[in-house]
Amino acid sequence: SELPKEVSYVAQSGFLFDGTVRDNITLGEDFDDGEIAIAIKLAGAEGFISSLPDGLDTELGERGTTLSGGQRQRLSLARALVRKPRLLILDDATSAVDPSVEAQILRSLKSAELPSTIVIVAYRPSSIRLADEVVYLARNRILGHGTHHELLEALEGYRLLVQAYEREAKRLEQEAS
After folding, report:
1. To the nearest 10°, the Cα dihedral for 56, 41, 14, 172?
2. Is 82 within 8 Å of 31 (Cβ atoms)?
3. What's residue 134's pLDDT?
């Protein structure tokens, strides 16, 4: 019964409820405005929340369909952070945000004084580079662990995967322009 209080999980497609931004962050628990503000800032959500008609008191509607995918992800992250979990699991939880916004969020999390161990499932090399330790999985096995640079040097499969991702990102960027 104690585990849910100690662990927060943020999935790629976070669910939002019919209610206000504040309701979706607190889920009815008692957090003061300062705690909510810190969580929102760490999640990189303060800019878009402040631009909403009623800020924290803006009604979102079912599933938060008026928000972008990245905004929904950042609210889900703020919901997890306000609880100050001992273990925070981010399962591709910033995939819908711009890579520069994602990097800023991850840097904020890294420098914040959180009581949390953070486990990130990530695919973007920019996200992986920020990790203290990377665990490389393939074919349901751990094939290596270390820093991003150590794995690039030591594991051809890891290096090829990173290069393939970077080529695809460059191709998509060229198509968009």
Report:
1. 120
2. yes
3. 92
Read off φ and ψ for residue 159, nearest 5 degrees. Answer: -60, -45
Residue 122 phi, psi (nearest 5) = -140, 155
DSSP 137: E
Question: Which residues make Cβ contacts (< 8 Å) with residue 68, sequence separation at least 6?
Answer: 96
pTM of this prediction exceeds 0.85: no
Is the distance from CB of 19 to CB of 57 less than 8 angstroms? no
The answer to whether 16 and 75 have CB atoms below 8 angstroms apart is yes
Q: Where are the beta strands (DSSP E) in the chain?
A: 7-10, 87-91, 117-121, 134-138, 141-146
Counted residue by residue, the chain has a size of: 177
Cα 91 from chain centroid (whole Å): 7
Any residues with CB less than 8 A from the CB of 143 and at least 6 apart, and which? 136, 137, 155, 157, 158
- The amino acid at residue 151 is L
pLDDT in tens, 57-86: 998 877 777 788 889 999 999 999 999 999
User: How far apart are alpha carbons 134 and 146 in whole angstroms?
Assistant: 5
Displacement of CA 79 from its chain's centroid (Å): 11
Rounded to whole angstroms, the Cα distance separating 32 from 154 reads 48
